[in-house]
Amino acid sequence: MPCFFAFCLLAACLLVQTLFATAAASAENLTSQLDKEITALFPDATTIGQKQQDVPVWPVFKGDELLGYAFQSVDLVSFRGWSGHPINMLIGLD
Question: pTM value?
Answer without folding.
Answer: 0.64
